[in-house]
Write a structure and sequence with these properties.
Helices cover 55% and strands 23% of the residues. The protein has helices spanning 4-7, 11-59, 65-79, and strands spanning 85-92, 96-105, 108-117.
Amino acid sequence: MGDKTESCPGRAEGSFTIEASLIMPMILGIIVMLIYFAMAAHDRCVIEHVCCLASSEAAGGEKSDEEAAALADEELDRRLICTWDTDITVYSDEEYVWTKISVNTFGKAYTHASACHKLFLPDY
């Protein structure tokens, strides 16, 4: 009667399998969630960057509001990871150019707006 594994054969080897089968779905779920949040954070940064880019392009006078909106749409199509339903609006007056990008996916809505003053653009 020395060892417990002799009196209950298979008990020591099977306990790890049961524990792993309970823990692995949780670990995989957490990993998938982290990847999804990383992709959403990347896309949010891209949307903010493209919004500022469209405002500065239109404020520079080289592009009209419609051309800046088309540039923003092209950049979003090229850089985004997830599929977003986007609405891009670029409008201006004598002093400012505003860009507003509204996105919607997976039941979440996000809007980012950016403004650029026409008089304070840097000379390159």
